[in-house]
Amino acid sequence: MKIIHIFLVVLVFAVSPIQAAELKPYTGTMHASEFILKDMQGKTHRLSGYRGKVVLVNFWATWCPPCIEELPSLQRLLELYEGKDFTILTIDVGEPAELIRPFLSQVGVNDLTVLLDADGTTHKDWNIYVFPTNFLLDQSGKIRYAAVGALNWDEQNVIDTINKLLE
After folding, report:
1. Please, are residues 21 and 133 in contact by the beta-carbon 8 Å criterion?
2. Looking at CB atoms within 10 Å, which of 49, 77, 135, 151 has the fewest?
3. CB-based contact 162:136 (threshold 8 Å)
4. For every residue of 76-90, which 3-state class applies, written as one string?
5. Number of domains in the chain
6. Which residues contact 83 (CB under 8 A, 6 or more apart)?
7. CATH classification at residue 39
8. Which of 33, 22, 72 is nearest to 55 (CA)?
9. Is residue 57 a contact partner of residue 114, using CB atoms and an 8 Å limit?
10. pTM (two decimals)
């Protein structure tokens, strides 16, 4: 596991925070793999329970500099779409809630749903090799867009893409 962690760190730095990711149409398997994960309060979340909403699934970790850069814009995106059929599910890979809570407070991100992929099963099922990795799902649970690396979720083209999915 330690070798995998080191490999992931190397890949994270290969996608530097200066090089902004791009939200691109997804060309892989269209349906997202189901997951059942607990959040930091112990509540169970099932991806299929979010059908009917546009869902942003974000894989990240506290040790990932591009993830740290991206988190505040995810918080602002959540606030922008408050009351709409849109949600963000962030999935922290391999870290305990006791580590994540103070980290989120430190970076000023308090309202995001953080799911815990403690054993790394979900990130393996989704074939995640770089953090952050994001998937934008339509209301039927199909993956429509993806971004590998940090993305500025405040950009107008990103907001336009989400608005189209909400129509």
Report:
1. no
2. 49
3. yes
4. HHHHHCCCCCEEEEE
5. 1
6. none
7. 3.40.30.10
8. 33
9. no
10. 0.87
Other Cβ atoms less than 10 A from the Cβ of 120: the count is 15
> How far apart are the C-alpha atoms of 116 and 36, rounded to whole Å?
10
Q: Is omega for the bond preceding 132 within 30 degrees of 0, making it cis? A: yes
| Contact yes or no for 166/32 (Cβ under 8 A) | no
Residue-range definition of the domain harbouring residue 101: 2-166
pLDDT in tens, the chain (167 residues): 444 443 444 344 444 443 468 999 998 777 889 999 999 999 999 999 999 999 999 999 999 999 999 999 999 999 999 999 999 999 999 999 999 999 999 999 989 999 999 999 999 999 999 999 999 999 999 999 999 999 999 999 999 999 999 99
Residue written as token pair 């591009």: 66
